[in-house]
Amino acid sequence: MNRAQLIAQIREKETCLIVGLDPDLDRFPTGLSPEPASIFEFNRQIIDATAPYCVGYKPNIAFYEQYGPAGMEAWHQTAHYLREKYPNHLRLADVKRGDIGHTASAYARSVFEIDDFHAATVAPYMGRDSVEPFLAHADRWTVLLALTSNPSADDFEQLPVGKDQLPLFQQVIRTSQQWKGSERLMYVVGATRAEELQSVRKWVPSAFLLIPGIGAQGGDLDAVFKFGANNDVGLLINSSRGIIYARGDSNFAQGAMEEARAMSERMRPYIR
Amino acid sequence: MNRAQLIAQIREKETCLIVGLDPDLDRFPTGLSPEPASIFEFNRQIIDATAPYCVGYKPNIAFYEQYGPAGMEAWHQTAHYLREKYPNHLRLADVKRGDIGHTASAYARSVFEIDDFHAATVAPYMGRDSVEPFLAHADRWTVLLALTSNPSADDFEQLPVGKDQLPLFQQVIRTSQQWKGSERLMYVVGATRAEELQSVRKWVPSAFLLIPGIGAQGGDLDAVFKFGANNDVGLLINSSRGIIYARGDSNFAQGAMEEARAMSERMRPYIR
């Protein structure tokens, strides 16, 4: 999925919502057996219900790996279902991989070739070698962690670094813009730090930003658009638990649809 | 595997070698079909041949994920085989995971509960929240990335940070020592930067250090012991490709054994 296609989706649907698919059997709705074999059915119902109100899906692989092979089967099934039934929705693998060159190439093959995701999240700590193997996939997106939405983002991401004393997350953005294939970079910037989006936009006026932390983590949609939007919208706003666990009864898919629709309605004035 | 057991293994075998199990079908020996179904057989022969000359095994999950479900089946089979047949060898999952609390807990369950690894590598970028869920497993080791052996470790890991202007990797070590369960931390410090081990030992005189980059990446064993060893040895030295691809013919397991034995013989004078 290229940039023009992504922007067209956002304009047409008047939303930049990404639905996070993070299955947790302890929160599965009544009527669905709380076992790994049910994960795909849970996802399928959520996807079918929310597809008109979002531009993509972001499964986080940790929630599948935790259930072993049966969990990973649901991961592959979900990727396959999305590709077959909703080919125009962005498929974003939230894997946060990071390793040196040879190994990074193997990770990139896993998400882009085995499961045919359009995009994958990648960690920056090890530098250029660990990211360029993802960027080498010319028709895919690499979504680099910059500023995350967790409290301990302050531990390292906010530390002033180098001669310019930029916070590390800004240095990550600035440095990564020099890497081969950097036009295929997006960045994770947590919504809990919406005012920081202004500083991010200094370094990457046109890049897409993936914004977690709206909903369950309490981020402010108004501030996100005010400080983060650009002329192409330039934002992908993720909500996971707030949507998929909106209702705990057998009408969970209806609940997810209503929540996704409500979030998209809140976004519409900013996108129009 | 606790600290005393690990040290006893090292003293008894007079080696601190960890064998990396990173299957690459393009480098599989003659006589072994280059398909994912052969990975476990490859690993099994390597393990049986090298077990007397090492204290543990470190499969890197990227090399399994790249082959999809069949690759991951080999991952689980390898973990299971090691646990059953070589329970006293350290089983270290090289996964370099990093995500926020709830998600980090899921990753930790995957490596420590599903596959029963003793230890897992974890990335520090997102800070305390992303590491403590691993440390919460009281009988396991969390091996935090500090200074890696790739050239672009300079991009961020070596940047001076904060008011003390320590290189980021040293700040990671210092900060992480304040986290709950920090007595169960080990650190990755690349052998290509052996002189840096001195500065690491200032912050963590007693922690075990996992040293990649000996062998294929050219690190210097003498310098690693000189600058990195402590009274309990305190080192786990990894070699992957140099051992498992020592010979490309049907005697590959013999080749791996000879290479592991030779490396251990080089280590012996430092450990005695």
Question: How are the SSEs ordered, and which strands pair?
Answer:
Two copies of one chain form a homodimer.
Chain A: H1 3-13, E1 17-21, H2 39-50, E2 56-59, H3 62-65, H4 68-85, E3 90-97, H5 101-114, E4 119-122, H6 128-135, E5 141-147, H7 153-156, E6 160-161, E7 166-167, H8 168-176, E8 185-189, H9 197-203, E9 209-211, H10 221-228, E10 235-239, H11 241-244, H12 252-271
Parallel strand pairs in A: 1-2, 1-10, 2-3, 3-4, 4-5, 5-8, 8-9, 9-10
Antiparallel strand pairs in A: 6-7
Describe the structure.
- The structure is a homodimer of 272-residue chains.
- Chain A is built from twelve helices and ten strands.
- Chain A is an alpha/beta fold and 272 residues long.
- In chain A, the strands form two sheets. The first copy, chain A, has an eight-stranded parallel barrel with strand order 1-2-3-4-5-8-9-10, surrounded by seven helices.
- In chain A, a hairpin with a 4-residue loop joins strand 6 (160-161) and strand 7 (166-167).
- Chain A is globular and about 60 Å long.
- The mean pLDDT of chain A is 95.
| Major sheet size, sense and barrel closure of chain A | 8 strands, parallel, barrel
**Total beta strands of chain A:** 10
Strand order of the biggest β-sheet of chain A? 1-2-3-4-5-8-9-10
Radius of gyration of chain A: 18 Å
State the oligomer.
homodimer
Integer average pLDDT of chain A: 95
Low-confidence stretches of chain A: none
- Provide the helix percentage of chain A: 40-55%
Task: Provide the structure class of chain A.
Answer: alpha/beta
| Total DSSP helices of chain A | 12
Task: Assess the beta-strand content of chain A as a share of residues.
Answer: 15-25%
Q: Specify the overall morphology of chain A.
A: globular
- Write the H/E string of chain A, N to C: HEHEHHEHEHEHEEHEHEHEHH
